[in-house]
Specification:
By secondary structure, this protein is an alpha/beta fold. It has helices spanning 15-26, 53-61, 106-119, 226-233, 237-248, 273-277; strands at 3-11, 32-35, 48-52, 72-74, 76-81, 87-91, 101-105, 123-126, 130-136, 139-147, 153-161, 168-169, 177-192, 198-203, 209-214, 217-225, 254-269, 282-283, 290-295. It is globular, with a radius of gyration of 21 Å.
């Protein structure tokens, strides 16, 4: 069994893993990324991300230009409860910011970060699926990674888990998930009038609906029950738009056309006891008790 030695290993070559590697390079620390997928690394993920202005500043310091990811500014967020009185509007101008954040397509954003990582000659080890992370008994400061695919071990002084927290740590059970019995329908919708730089968060009886401005269309996230989501996705586009309009109302105008719709699970994840205990040895982007969306 061959053994590779690295000072810092990052498990996961997605946006978080690439950003961490770039941040470490910016302070003079070398790291290697371990990625399960083989080259060429391509993503068909159609999600739209909402990056906060703080995230934009962090990326800017790392030399990442969001303009290369076709980003769209969010200057205002309209928050309301369907069928109830009142609304809240958050404006960037109220807090003296040029923007509250940016809407960006996951695939564009990811390719931007990945290309920058490769350009800066950061090592990416492809085709390695990590089975577990464990402390080496012969050296408590060394963490070994065993790959299912190649049965390799990689020794490192620091391991950063950036793959969503699915790695088994010293035999622990996987992180606990709570399924809320909801699905989120995700897609792109055209409206009349065309979107401005305003985003919407609309609470409804079936669940929240979010609209993110993307130029001439909105990216939408529509939360509803599992059974309802499957039935709604099977509807013809005209009927789908009618259901979405009924659920959301007319705050954003008339919904005209929809494309690239699919559904994701709504889950809540948490760290295991052992993951918290070894936090001095590694870091993880998984946020305890924070809902996330995962594509089925």
């Amino acid at each position: 069994m061959s053994l590779l030695k690295r000072k810092i290993i990052i498990i996961g070559g997605g946006p978080v893993g690439c950003a961490v590697a770039l941040a470490l390079r910016s302070i003079g620390l070398e790291s290697s990324i371990v990625e399960e997928r083989n080259q060429p690394l391509k993503s068909t993920d159609g999600r739209t991300l909402a990056l906060s202005y703080n995230s934009h500043l962090v990326l800017e310091r790392l030399g990442i230009n969001l303009k290369n990811s076709r980003s769209f500014p969010i200057d205002e967020i309209h928050i309301s409860d369907r069928g109830n009185f009142g609304r809240s509007i958050v404006r960037a101008s109220d807090i003296n910011l040029p923007s509250l954040g940016y809407a960006v397509r996951f695939n564009d954003f990811y390719q931007n970060l990945y290309s920058e990582t490769k350009e800066r000659s950061i090592e990416i080890l492809h085709g390695i699926k990590v089975a577990r992370v464990d402390n080496d008994p012969s050296n408590p400061k060394t963490i070994s990674i065993e790959s299912e695919a190649t049965v390799e071990k990689i020794a490192a002084n620091l391991v950063i888990i950036a793959d969503g927290g699915s790695i088994n740590l010293r035999g622990d059970a996987p992180p606990r998930e709570t399924d809320y019995g909801h699905q989120a329908i995700v897609g792109l919708v055209k409206t009349k009038p065309t979107p401005s730089s305003r985003a919407f968060e609309r609470f409804t009886d079936s669940g929240p609906i979010a609209l993110l401005p993307r130029g001439e269309e909105y990216a939408f996230v529509w939360s509803c029950g599992k059974d309802d989501a499957a039935k709604i996705l099977e509807l013809p586009d005209e009927s789908f738009l009618s259901r979405l309009q009924d659920a959301f109302g007319d705050r954003a105008g008339q919904f005209l056309a929809v494309r690239e719709k699919y559904h994701t699970r709504c889950v809540c994840g948490s760290l295991t006891k052992h993951q918290r205990a070894v936090s001095s040895f590694w870091a993880t982007p998984l946020r305890p008790y924070t809902p996330s969306l995962r594509r089925d």
